[in-house]
């Protein structure tokens, strides 16, 4: 499945529990020798009263707490399966609620953003996370600087720039992902504000790399733009894969993400991949 080109291998392990190693995840995610994906998602039996539990692994095998585009995909599956108007998905970062928005789109209540330095987390204290001290490029003439930092169940650093396409995120992203300020690594985004209701976004996703779309990055960017007085609470985020509608509601402080999903194909998983091997 994919959400705006951010693609996933989805394994339903509710009837047959499966212990996935990091090697197996990397083998499945390998685009040359495996199936190929940005993240590997497991649908598991609920643990805390939800409709299903969603496990999330990046292509490098690392486990993460949230994935917005995958949430829409799994939300669609569980909505169809249960016939409910909304479903509750358990994730490592908490419960999220998914509902049908019509026209093939799904809305996900991503919950409240986390804005304190130790919640994101950062390795040192910043009183104001709307913009922290971090520069990229020559001293005194940085390419970009002063990112906003937000957690949407995973850490994000968002640099607001004049021209997102002028930034070589494929080069800068890996260095910033592992910057000492981010003890759990970070997703790195460059955002270009086109209008108070429209933002262009490019994302380097930790453990994955350049991605066509990142739902939590879009949510984090919407929040950051409001906090910096750059955008309204309802905004369209344009990523390389397409558009997401983001709303940070003042009434409940929750972030709502709406966008499309696509079911690509299903099939049987080669057991050699589960063993961490390669398929010739």
UniProtKB/TrEMBL annotation:
Chain residues that bind substrate: 6, 39, 58, 68-69, 154, 187, 205-206, 215-216
Major site of localization recorded for this protein: cytoplasm
Protein name from the UniProt record: Diaminopimelate epimerase
Pfam families associated with the record: DAP_epimerase
Compartments in which it is found: Cytoplasm
Family per record: Belongs to the diaminopimelate epimerase family.
Domain of life: Bacteria
Subunit structure: Homodimer.
